């Protein structure tokens, strides 16, 4: 580990004492985790602490850990919480980066506080995570779909979302309007015949 990463790790532990549940360094990046209850406090300290100064939120995304296999152990399945939010933060003044991961406590209705008051750019990032993963952000000023259609059913980045979707949209010339109907695509085998045939002869 480089001296700079050593210093950042030490400063994170000192500034966020008792709030960080895990700190790891891999591929020259520092990743920290915290509990959902401490999420806002940790983010405020990351932004405001004099030795951290993470004034810029680069990215915020949702993650669905269902059906997630532990690295190097393909047969070992994830046993933790299902949904997480991952933030990438940049300190322009100190030229350092950190990643923060926090898990929503309820897998059936995942909720975390909004970060719009901490970093206003979180607005659309959180809308995207809501749209694609169904993650709710408490006190968000305008939490509505961002990428999918207003009548879209479900959240397409969840691991249990069907690949062909639930409904399809098309223009009906008889009704002269756009209509929604159940998906009519027939399931098909997408494995090329050559691979299927080779597999049969083994």
- How is the CATH topology named? Beta Polymerase, domain 2
Distance between the termini: 46 Å
Estimated structural class: alpha+beta
> Which bin fits the share of residues in helices?
10-25%
**Extended strand count:** 11
Tally of separate helices: 4
What string, H for helix and E for strand, traces the elements in order?
Answer: HEEHEEEEEEHEEEH
Low-confidence stretches at least 5 residues in length (pLDDT < 50)?
none
- Overall pLDDT, averaged? 87
Specify the overall morphology. globular
What's the main sheet like? Answer: 5 strands, mixed
Largest sheet strand order: 1-2-7-6-3
So, the CATH homologous superfamily?
NADH:ubiquinone oxidoreductase Nqo5 subunit
Give the CATH level 1 class: Alpha Beta
Give the amount of beta strand, in percent: 25-35%
Radius of gyration from the alpha-carbon trace, in angstroms: 21 Å
The total domain count is 1
Q: What's the architecture, going by CATH?
A: 2-Layer Sandwich
Write structural notes for this entry.
- With 202 residues, the protein is of the alpha+beta class.
- It has one domain (3-147): Beta Polymerase, domain 2.
- The chain has 4 helices and 11 strands.
- The strands form 4 sheets. A 5-stranded mixed β-sheet has the order 1-2-7-6-3. Strands 4-5 form a two-stranded antiparallel ribbon. A two-stranded parallel ribbon has the order 8-9.
- The model has no long low-confidence stretch (mean pLDDT 87).
């Amino acid at each position: 580990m480089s001296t700079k990463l050593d210093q950042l790790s030490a400063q994170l532990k000192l500034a966020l004492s008792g709030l960080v549940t895990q700190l790891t360094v891999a591929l020259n990046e520092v990743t920290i985790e915290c509990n959902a209850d401490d999420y806002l406090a940790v983010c405020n300290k990351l932004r405001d602490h004099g030795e951290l100064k993470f004034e810029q939120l680069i990215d915020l995304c949702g993650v669905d850990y269902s059906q997630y296999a532990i690295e190097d152990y393909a047969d070992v399945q994830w046993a933790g919480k299902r949904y997480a939010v991952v933030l990438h933060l940049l300190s322009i003044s100190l030229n350092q980066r950190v990643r923060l991961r926090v898990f929503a406590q309820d897998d059936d209705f995942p909720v975390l506080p909004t970060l719009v008051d901490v970093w206003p750019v979180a607005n659309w990032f959180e809308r995207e995570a809501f749209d694609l993963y169904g993650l709710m952000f408490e006190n968000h000023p305008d939490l509505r779909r961002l990428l999918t259609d207003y009548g879209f059913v479900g959240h397409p980045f969840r691991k249990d979302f069907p690949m062909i979707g639930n409904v399809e949209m098309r223009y009906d010339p008889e009704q002269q309007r756009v209509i929604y109907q159940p998906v009519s695509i027939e399931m098909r085998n997408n494995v090329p015949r050559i691979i299927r045939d080779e597999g049969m002869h083994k």
